[in-house]
Amino acid sequence: MEKLSRGLITLLNAAAGLLFAAAIAINFVNVVGRYVFHAPLFWAEEVTTLLVIWSVCLMSYRLTANGEHLVTDILRPFLPASLQRALLLAVTAFGVAATGFVAYYAYVVVALVARLQQLTTVAELPKEVANGSILACFALALAGSLVRLLQMADTRRPLPGAEPAEVDDAILATEGAK
Amino acid sequence: MSIPLVLSILPPVLLIAGLPIYLVLLVSAGAAILGFMSVPPTLIPQIMFGGLDKFALLSVPFFIFAGEIMARGGVSRRIVACILSLCGRFKAARPITTIAASEFFGAVSGSSPATVAAMGKLMYPSLREGGYGEKFSLGLLTSAGGIASVMPPSILMILYAASAEQSVTELFAAGVIPALLLGFATLVYILWHARKVKPVPEARRSAVETVALVLGALPALGTPLVILGGIYSGVFSPTESAGIAGVYGILVARFLYREISWCEIWEVVVSSARLTAQILLVVAASGVFSWVLTTSGIPQALVQSVGGLADSPWVVLIAINLFLLVVGCLIDPVSAIVLLTPMLVPLASHLGIDLVHFGVIMAVNLSIGMFTPPFGLNIFTSHALFNVKISTICAGLVPFIVLQVITLFVISFIPWLSLVGAQFVR
Amino acid sequence: ADFTMKLATATVNDVQTEAIKRFAKRVETRSNGRIKTELYPAAQLGSNTRMIEGLQLGSIEFYTGPAAYLVGVDARYQIMDMPGVFTDARHAQRTFSDPEFRKALLDIGTSKGLVGLGTYIYGNTAFATRFEGAKVADFKGRKLRVLASRVERKGVELMGATAVPVDFSEVVTALQQGTIDGLKSSPPAFTSLKLINIVKNVTATEDGVMGELMLASKQWWDTLPADLQKMLREEAAALEPELYDFVLDDQAKAYKLWEEQGGKVFHLPAQERAALLKDMREAASAMLRENKATGEMLDLTLRVAERVK
Ligand code: NA
Ligand code: NA
């Protein structure tokens, strides 16, 4: 499972990165096309927005599985280790339920727009391409939180993300590597 | 139980428990929907998508990318070295460089968290090298980005103008002096703070060295020129400029300085995508929270009670400012301005407050909201960027928040500061 | 109240806001409080696209907005924006209010979760530009912002200009900085955006009208008793002529205000305009005829428009 999860993250990283890079490329081509050649890509704004949204949604697996989401970790540092594990388990289990709930209703929305054969206003793409992003986001978050829950239930493992790593060095390293 | 109770109790409880912030917002909104509203839960994914489906929002990922490319490709290092070689002998050179660079970048980008992301990567290591503390550096960087919403172009002002039927040009012009004032207030604090710390003295450089540093940094210093020049000559829009900045960054770092490989550029793409996801998921979820808040009638009731306080414009203005500061703590500025402009503008015009001045007040207020806990995109951006505790960032922010709130009241009660700019284009 | 009705629209201080205000008032009065109304202007409940989805999913009960945004739901809605068909706004009104056309248009959405209640217009089409657009040749090589529908793009290309889609949030900045040279909309929109501070010229091409729809959520509609359904249909129909009067008055005021504030209003030379409108109509017709359903809708519209001339 560990291997599978890491493989999935590598794959999704690559996919999200490609979409992100494509958005930057289209934005550039559109500006050049409009200013230099008077030939803008009429679909550029809609498609770049969709590319970034999909990139965001594909990242949701690793954010959830690795515990990289933005959180305000106020209570946990004050608890003893055993309670910390219990709290993390409870929060993660709660996350499974919440993401599963949203994933189901995201599916209902996608099913509806698919049944009605609707198109996006500008690029006239099937609307499933647009609304499907949120379904993907929560399906991946559900999978990610299940994996995290299973990993946490294994008491031999250390607690994930207990202390934020010292970043000063990390940032200085990226700067000073040259 | 009622909606106001759910929306005021659930979020703090879940936040403290350590649920991811985007889920805190979704679960609170979901509880209100399931318990008290006759709308289907399909609303949640649908409005989440709507929260992301905004072209103007793209300036956030694009500037994150541009900022990272410049940080990794030696662009930002050269800018910092150049400015420091020119004014490094001055007291507090590094924080002053930070605030100046943040204002400049914020002016261009129009996006507060994007400014934090770009300037953070650029200036944080430099500040720490210069001997400034973690909290001070974090507070400075996290708050300095706020100026982006006041200095033109500003997404908040565009949204306000559309809603309040005011001229965007006038609002932009009106924002300049207040934005400079916010920067000046921060500057005063920086100088005062620098008296207490012992900044590491900058190395003395010969004239030749300085010229070499400046020449070497010219392409890097060209970045803001490319952005500003492109926007003001109409080559591209403010949002597009963010993407162009990234491409320009690649050109300079890869082909001119040759300090970054394609492999590293790819790494920056992936890490920018991750950072973008962390921030935009919260934006999307806050859209759902705002939707529920809007239809619950809570903000409307609050505005009414604010309006009923007194007939004096001054008292009501204080009340509105306090109210907006609280709102800024809880929801994101774009949602807030969309939500509150139609409700507050009648109140303001009833009291005879100039609506351009009022737009500036709202923009300044909500720009402060970007870095007031518990909800502030700038805070989250810093948190994601530097991987430090949110409590550490908040502690560092306190003096900057106090300072900017004082400036806010000055801006509120001296309409001239805003209107003198607007007069130029009227 | 037995029912709550959220009425939503994307703008403020214009005919759309007037539509939700007046409709809400009529509904509250006629239903004797059985329907409680809540107003959400200024896109408080989301963009046009989101509000239309909201109707389909049942989270919003009533929405009014441009037909142009419904093209993704069904391509037949763009018929209202057909260029070169209506001699003036009142002719468009007669066509849209004709029982045969009205039924055909309002029933389009029934199978897609949208109950059509009524139609009106936002105004005649016009351009606000940085340059003086006195004749068609003045538009040659210019970059003009239009809604991204194919018909709109084609129309601008026929004038020799480049159609540039710009997100609404950036229109004003783009116009100010010269990223675009002008935008196509309607005079009331120009004054409410205070474009006079940025550009001085309006060209009243009036090649068509900007069609508007009043829609209810089918999910909600099906929960209503028959008498309330009947009442809503009647009140929407009764509101229509009021909205035309409001918008045409608003438009006349907008032109007047534009000139009072130092702006110029241009009209294309009659012959040039006639030729342009003919080209636009032919191009749009050709596009609509590519598809059977839109082709049939076009035939119906042309027939009715001819009958009520
Ligand atoms: Na700005
Ligand atoms: Na805040």
List keywords for this structure.
heterotrimer; A: mainly alpha; about 70% helix; C: about 300 residues; alpha/beta; six-stranded mixed beta sheet; five-stranded mixed beta sheet; 11 helices; binds sodium ion
Radius of gyration of chain B: 22 Å
Hey, roughly how much beta strand do the residues of chain A contain? under 5%
- In percent, how helical is the residue content of chain B? over 70%
Helix content of chain A: over 70%
How many helices of chain B? The count is 20
What Rg of chain A, in angstroms, do the CA atoms define?
Answer: 20 Å
Global morphology of chain B: globular
Largest interface by Cβ-Cβ < 8 Å:
A-B, 69 and 70 residues
Overall pLDDT of chain A, averaged?
Answer: 84
Q: Give the total of domains of chain B.
A: 2
What letter string, H or E per element, gives the SSE order of chain A?
HHHHHH
Question: Helical element count of chain A?
Answer: 6
- Number of separate domains of chain A: 1
Gist?
The complex is a heterotrimer of chains A (178), B (426) and C (309). Chain A is mainly α and 178 residues long. Chain A has helices at residues 2-37, 44-58, 60-65, 81-115, 127-153, 167-176.
Structure, described:
The complex is a heterotrimer of chains A (178), B (426) and C (309). Chain A is mainly alpha-helical. Chain A has one domain (2-159). Chain A is 72% helix and 0% strand. Chain A is built from 6 helices and no strands. Chain A has helices at residues 2-37, 44-58, 60-65, 81-115, 127-153, 167-176. Chain B is globular and about 70 Å long. Chain B is mainly alpha-helical. Chain C contains 11 helices and 11 strands. Chain C has a 6-stranded mixed sheet with strand order 7-6-8-5-9-11. In chain C, strands 2-1-3-10-4 form a 5-stranded mixed sheet, sandwiched between helices. Chains in contact: A-B, A-C, B-C. The interface between B and C is large, with 45 and 37 residues. The structure holds sodium ion (2 copies).
